[in-house]
Amino acid sequence: AQTVTQSQPEMSVQEAETVTLSCTYDTSENNYYLFWYKQPPSRQMILVIRQEAYKQQNATENRFSVNFQKAAKSFSLKISDSQLGDTAMYFCAFTSSGEGNAGKSTFGDGTTLTVKP
Amino acid sequence: GAGVSQSPSNKVTEKGKDVELRCDPISGHTALYWYRQSLGQGLEFLIYFQGNSAPDKSGLPSDRFSAERTGGSVSTLTIQRTQQEDSAVYLCASSYQPRREQFFGPGTRLTVL
User: Fold this and answer.
1) In B, which residues are within 8 Å of A89 by CB distance?
2) Is B31 on the interface with A (CB under 8 A)?
3) b (16+ CB within 10 A) / e for A64-99
4) Residue B61 backbone class (left: φ over 0; alpha: ψ -120 to 50; beta: rest)
5) In 3D, which of A22, A12, A16, A19 has the Cα closest to residue A108?
6) What's the Cα-to-Cα distance from A31 to each of A18, A94, A95, B1, rounded to whole Å?
């Protein structure tokens, strides 16, 4: 079974600074998908960024980028130029693409990020 | 277009009662997920539907929990004989393909008194 670990339950950052959220996972699969989701205090979860394991290039979406280290099974999220609206709980998620369980997802316990003015 | 919708948004029930939670996924999405989230905690996988395949029920915590998906669209999560530990937010998500990102609904907050 896959596991996803987010070792930082809470983090804070000053507005306009950069912060990195860590995520490690454990799997025996070679091809899979990794995601970061954001859940603001209003509760609705939205996608931040997506990474396909077979792609070596790190995904980027505007101020959000990942550092994907497949051998180390690490998938950290970097938020540049942090904004007050980035305050949320961030979840790292692993989605399997293996035969028979494609699509099954495992989420980490989340990191609560507070951006301070 | 319309996102994933869930109803009711809040449900308060008494211990021992049955409840039904509804999820309307995004049209055309073949994959549908149910998760449970306790206050300030992570997501606990409950069940996963993909097309016409048999659902993956491996996350259901007990036989009091069941779910169905009719016509490959709307899904209902049923909790029988509710217990206080069932109190949580129940989130539904859908995905165009199993390997793609999930779109989440706003959740149903269930409170069992």
Assistant:
1) 40
2) yes
3) bbbebeeeebebbbbbeebeeebbbbbbbbbbbbee
4) alpha
5) A22
6) 30, 11, 10, 31
Q: For B42-77, what is each residue's pLDDT tens digit?
A: 899 999 998 888 888 989 999 999 999 988 789 999
Q: Residue holding tokens 């950052």?
A: A13
| Whole-angstrom distance, CA of residue A59 vs CA of residue A62 | 10
Distance CA A45, CA B104 (A): 6
Amino acid of residue B82 = T
Angle at B81 between CA B78 and CA B85, to 5 degrees: 90
Token pair belonging to B61: 């915590």
Phi-psi category of residue B58: left, alpha or beta, with phi > 0 → left and psi -120 to 50 → alpha? alpha
pLDDT, one tens digit per residue, over A38-63 is 999 877 899 999 999 988 899 999 99
Residue B48 contacts residue B92 (beta carbons within 8 Å): no
- For B70-106, letters b (16+ CB in 10 Å) and e give eeeeebebebeebeeebbbbbbbbbbeebbbbbbbbb
Contacting residues of B for A103, CB less than 8 Å apart? 31, 48, 50, 95, 97-99
- B49 with B75: CB under 8 angstroms? yes
